[in-house]
Design brief:
- The complex is a heterodimer.
- Chain A is mainly α.
- Chain A has two domains: 1-42; 44-251, MetI-like fold, CATH 1.10.3720.10.
- Chain A is built from eleven helices and no strands.
- Chain A has helices at 2-27, 44-51, 53-86, 90-104, 107-120, 127-150, 156-163, 168-197, 200-205, 213-221, 227-251.
- The longest helix of chain A has 34 residues, at 53-86.
- Chain A is globular and about 70 Å long.
- By secondary structure, chain B is α+β, with helices and mostly antiparallel strands.
- Chain B folds into two domains: 2-231, P-loop containing nucleotide triphosphate hydrolases (Rossmann fold), CATH 3.40.50; 236-359, OB fold (Dihydrolipoamide Acetyltransferase, E2P) (Beta Barrel), CATH 2.40.50.
- Chain B has eight helices and 20 strands.
- A six-stranded mixed beta sheet of chain B has the order 6-7-8-3-9-10, sandwiched between helices.
- In chain B, helix 2 packs parallel to helix 4.
- The longest helix of chain B has 18 residues, at 164-181.
- Chain B is elongated, with a radius of gyration of 25 Å.
- The chains are: A mainly alpha, B alpha+beta.
């Protein structure tokens, strides 16, 4: 009896979470112009995406921003994690505390404060400002993931490398980073999806010519949800889901 | 080969190594022996270059290396927990040092195979460290260090994590390996048996100080301090006072007993001393025994009550109370006549005066 209740609970829970998404995906293949009736299967909306210059421009912006953000925040976040791992002094612990701040600050606050920062520093709103903003909230996530990976890292491995003739840099690249690699790649994937999906921070910090896919979708929705949007969201969903599955696999790797 | 010159190391206000000087000869097997926290590992790390001395100098092969980083020192270390690289195969672990030296691939391959053979792991090159047993990991760590042909190999309690049988086997293997390769070994352990079994010389350390640096036999038979006497093997340490010094004997007074001891220079009458007698030098006889020698300059004799006989396999321990308030332990072969003496009966203990070793500190 209680087992059956549990099953019902689980099914309802998953329906609640995934039904809207499932509807969106299904309707992206619907031959009708409206999200009401099913009128047959088509890939026309996906084909139409490829001919829409605005969507292609937004996709290009999104990919450039996500890629650059991933590279920068991975380097920055990994460096932070290494520093926090090696430094248990007051400074190290303070850094750890500050790394959490961008993780817990509401995105709206983050967006507004970044906007204020760009206005103050006279940085023109555009692709650059969006990248800076994305790095600001992605790097801490990378740092936390890499730090978790380094937890339990045996420091005598670095000493062993030095002992065998490696300089500090060689020890970093041949021992520490390879061992932390699953964490680093997982962090990078997470940064990529977060940057690709982000709406709120981007909304505040984007300028003319730096419209990303989420921003473009939002503007399209103002004229009603078309199957084209469903198709576009499905594409985004597939990209994000792939990255998240890969991330999950990597985080679980043990040595 | 390795020389420490008045080396001290402070961690904050904790003095880990205190004005330590020692000279390790080429091809020597030297052991740093002491309880945990005695500074032996710190000494090893000072030689490896992971720590810099607060004062004093470290020399490796006549070159002062105080400011030389670990990767430029001609020494290699076998770490306590092995510190094998988990992401590399056994083969790549061993090749690590050679690849950094940019040797050509065929030389690297040749030397890695030599090292694998040396530690009898010829077939396990492709395994990852976690797929090996503790003993095998230990051998990989050894091979990884030796393949670099260091002048000095530093070993930090390398056998600590192995079970007793494996440890004994590895002791013999390490010793023969060292002799065959002629590499200088500096070995850290807290296990005195291990130290006695393997070392050419032993440095007994406590609280950052080397109490005695000598051969195993000299340390066992002629300890310089009470700490050494107590730490190495078992010892009866009797607090005493010099009562008379003759031509070849020192008479000491222990709780009312007058005992002859081995002669030693630099003593004056009435000086406070300790007498160390190793349990295996003491014989136990029933008080009525006719065999017992008379007390003389050559023989110390005391009477007491046999309290306990502890069976230890090949040997047994006879614990005897001597009045007032003194306990002396004798160790005899299990086949000795001690077993026939009932406990709580009166016995006499005797030992040659040469077995009574006088300590002044």
């Amino acid at each position: 009896m209680s087992r059956r209740c549990l099953w019902i609970y689980v099914v309802l829970g998953y329906l609640f979470l995934y039904l809207p998404i499932a509807v969106l995906v299904v309707f992206s293949f619907n031959a009708s112009r409206f999200n009401v009736n099913w009128e047959g299967f088509t890939l026309a909306w996906y084909a139409k995406l490829l001919t829409n210059a605005n969507i292609l421009a937004a996709a290009k912006n999104s990919l450039i921003i996500a890629t650059v953000t991933t590279v920068l925040s991975t380097i920055l976040g990994t460096g932070l994690a290494l520093g926090m791992h090696r430094n248990s002094s007051v400074l190290g612990r303070l850094t750890e505390l500050f790394v959490y701040v961008p993780v817990i600050v509401p995105e709206t606050v983050m967006g507004i404060s970044l906007l204020a920062f760009f206005v103050l520093t006279n940085i023109e709103l555009g692709v650059t400002s969006v990248i800076i903003s994305h790095v600001a909230f992605c790097a801490p996530f990378v740092a936390l993931i890499v730090q978790a990976r380094l937890e339990g890292f045996d420091d005598s491995l670095v000493e062993a490398a030095l002992d065998l003739g490696a300089t500090e840099w060689q020890a970093l690249f041949r021992v520490t980073l390879p061992i932390a690699a699953p964490g680093i790649v997982a962090g990078a994937l997470l940064a990529f999806t977060m940057s690709l999906d982000d709406f709120i921070v981007t909304f505040f910090t984007a300028g003319p010519g730096s419209t990303t896919l989420p921003l473009y979708i939002f503007s399209m929705v103002k004229f009603g949800v078309s199957p084209e949007i469903n198709a576009l969201c499905t594409v985004l969903l597939v990209v994000s889901a792939t990255a998240i599955v890969a991330y999950d696999k990597l985080v679980r790797i043990r040595d | 080969m390795v020389k420490l010159e008045s080396v001290s190391k402070m961690f904050g206000d904790f003095l880990a190594v205190d004005n330590l000087s020692m000279d390790v000869a080429e091809g020597e097997f030297l052991t740093l022996l002491g309880p945990s926290g005695c500074g032996k590992t710190t000494t090893l790390r000072l030689i490896a270059g992971f720590e810099q001395p607060t004062s004093g100098n470290v020399y490796i092969g006549n070159k002062m290396v105080n400011d030389v980083p670990p990767y430029r020192r001609d020494v290699n270390t076998v770490f306590q927990n092995y510190a094998l690289f988990p992401h590399l195969t056994v083969y790549e672990n061993i090749a690590f040092g050679l690849r950094l030296r940019r040797l050509d691939p065929s030389t690297i391959d040749e030397r890695v195979r030599w090292a694998l053979k040396l530690v009898k792991l010829d077939n396990l090159g492709e395994r990852k460290p976690r797929q090996l047993s503790g003993g095998q990991q230990q051998r990989v760590a050894l091979a990884r260090a030796l393949v670099c042909h260091p002048k000095v190999l530093l070993l930090d309690e390398p056998l600590g994590a192995l079970d007793l049988k494996m440890r004994k086997a590895m002791q013999i293997e390490l010793k023969s390996l060292q002799r065959r390769l002629g590499v200088t070994f500096i070995y850290v352990t807290h296990d005195q048996e291990e130290a006695l079994a393997m070392s050419d010389r032993i440095a007994v350390m406590n609280a950052g100080i080397v109490h005695q640096l000598d051969t195993a036999a000299a340390i066992y038979e002629y300890p310089k301090t009470r700490f050494v006497a107590d730490f190495i093997g078992e010892a009866n340490l009797l607090q005493a006072r010099v009562s008379e010094i003759t031509a070849d004997t020192v008479w000491a007074e222990v709780n009312g007993h007058r005992l002859p001891c081995a002669r030693r220079e630099g003593l004056r009458p009435d000086q406070a001393i300790w007498i160390m007698v190793r349990p295996e030098n003491i014989r136990v006889l029933p008080v009525s025994s006719q065999e017992a020698p008379a007390p003389s300059e050559k023989t110390a004799v005391v009477k007491g009550v046999l309290r306990e006989v502890v069976y230890l396999g090949a040997t047994l321990k006879a614990i005897t109370d001597i009045n007032p308030g003194l306990t002396i332990t004798a160790a005899r072969l299990s086949s000795s006549s001690v077993v026939s003496i009932p406990t709580d009966s009166e016995v006499q203990l005797h030992w040659p005066s040469s077995a009574g070793h006088i300590l002044t500190e």
